Amino acid sequence: MKNKIGLSTFILASPFGNDELALMGKVKAMGYEVLEVCVENPAILSTDAMKVAAETHGLEISICGAFGPDRDISHEDPVIRAQGIEYLKTCIDFAAGVGSSFVCGPMYSATGKTRLLSPTDRKQQFNWAVESLFTVARYARNKGVGLAIEPLNRFETDLINTLEQGVELCRAVGLDNVGLLIDTFHMHIEEKSLAESIRLAAPYIFHVQVSENDRGTPGKGQVHWDEFFSALSEINYEGQIVVESFLPTVKEIARAVSAWRPVAPSMDSLAINGFEFINSKVTQYLKENKINGA
């Protein structure tokens, strides 16, 4: 399997629905092989329409979740936890229907929930997350789908910030279809060493997202890209690598990720230049690694 470069629908439209599926042609023309569809509103998407569009344009689809306050599987209210579980099951059904091997995202909590809890209360939140994820992961396993859990930086969650904490969560759930999504934006903030954290989490890394330290175009900021891709080469990572950023015009998403200003001249330029940069690094580190048989 070779590494395939993808683009997040957050760069194209939010919420992304069947009406935007024609944008797949533009995504393919930019060079991408994967479209990562975020299921913000399940009611405006259908697996059949996605599959037809993907086949028409020669793209693969991966599935990402969006986790607002009513989809919080570690909430103190069991009704809200149940809503989060049902939403995740819906995402899993989408993944199974379009051939995505996983659902990814920060599924352990609501994005933007940051509270100064006591160790006891924090442990309770962690335990609720584990209990809910175990239920969801069993459902996903029966459909041949994995869960790729994303650690977020400290300003977006108070629960899982580092890859080490992510590994702890995966181990606590204890099922082999539960792993991690690693994201350079969050890692740049939280990890002391990109390479060391990747080595630590290597057996659990299911998926990769890439973004610059300002959420802008990869290669135009401060992320240590050579260190990052060298470490991916070292662990023989063969999965997808998805360019992710966010439209600053979508208020709910912009507020959740603190996107207060444009991070590129246009989202199209971010997508085009991001692909060119990431493709150069994949060619330099990952394709070279496979050719040399390392």
List the helices and strands and how they pair.
Elements (H helix, E strand, L loop, with lengths): L4 E4 L15 H6 L4 E6 L7 H11 L2 E6 L12 H21 L3 E4 L13 H24 L3 E4 L13 H11 L4 E6 H7 L3 H8 L3 E6 L14 H10 L6 E3 L7 H7 L9 H25 L3
Parallel strand pairs: 1-2, 1-8, 2-3, 3-4, 4-5, 5-6, 6-7, 7-8
Q: What would your notes on this structure say?
A:
- The protein has one domain: Divalent-metal-dependent TIM barrel enzymes (TIM Barrel, Alpha-Beta Barrel).
- It is 44% helix and 13% strand.
- It has an eight-stranded parallel beta barrel, surrounded by six helices.
- Helix 7 packs parallel to helix 8 and helix 8 packs across helix 10.
- It is globular, with a radius of gyration of 18 Å.
Produce a short descriptive summary.
The chain is of the alpha/beta class and 294 residues long.
Keywords:
TIM Barrel; about 290 residues; 8-stranded parallel β-barrel; alpha/beta
Low-pLDDT residue spans: none
Query: How would you state the average pLDDT, rounded?
Result: 93
Q: Biggest sheet: strands side by side, in what order?
A: 1-2-3-4-5-6-7-8
Number of strands: 8
Count of runs of 4 or more consecutive helical residues: 10
Radius of gyration: 18 Å
User: What order do the helices and strands follow?
Assistant: EHEHEHEHEHEHHEHEHH
End-to-end Cα distance: 15 Å
**CATH architecture heading:** Alpha-Beta Barrel
Query: In the CATH hierarchy, what is the superfamily?
Result: Divalent-metal-dependent TIM barrel enzymes
Domain count: the total is 1
